[in-house]
Amino acid sequence: MLMKAPKRFTNEEIKARIVMIVAIGLTASFVGSVFTILYGLLFVSQPASMAELDAAQINILSSMLLTLSGGLIGLLAGNGLKDKPKDKDDNSQSNLQN
C-alpha cells in the first residue's frame, strides 16, 4: 500500500502556528499568576501589617505580570505583520520584459 505524503505547510501557516502556541503559553502563565495573586489576597488570612518577604514577593509578581502582558500584547500586535504573498502577475510581467 502506498502512503500519501503529508501536506507541507506554507511559511505563513507555520508562523501562525508558532504565534498561537507562544500566545497560549503566555496567556496561561498570565492567567495563572493573576489567579495566584487574587487567591493570596482574598482567601489567605493576612496580618495587619505586611511582612517584608510578602511585599518583595508581590513586587516580583507584579513585575513578572507586566513583562508577560507586554510580551503578549507585542506578540499579538506584531501578528498583523504578515509576509507579502508573491504575485504571479508581477513575475510574469518581469519575464516578459526580459
Account of the 3D structure:
- This protein is mainly alpha-helical and 98 residues long.
- The protein has a domain at 13-46 and 63-77.
- It has 3 helices and no strands.
- Helix 1 (11-42) packs antiparallel against helix 2.
H/E element order: HHH
Give the mean pLDDT.
76
Strand runs, count: 0
| Radius of gyration using CA atoms only | 24 Å
Q: Brief overview, please?
A:
With 98 residues, the chain is mainly alpha-helical. The protein has a domain at 13-46 and 63-77.
Provide the fold topology.
Elements: H1 11-42, H2 52-78, H3 88-97
Helix pairs in contact: 1-2
Task: Name a few traits of the molecule.
mainly alpha; 3 helices; 98 residues
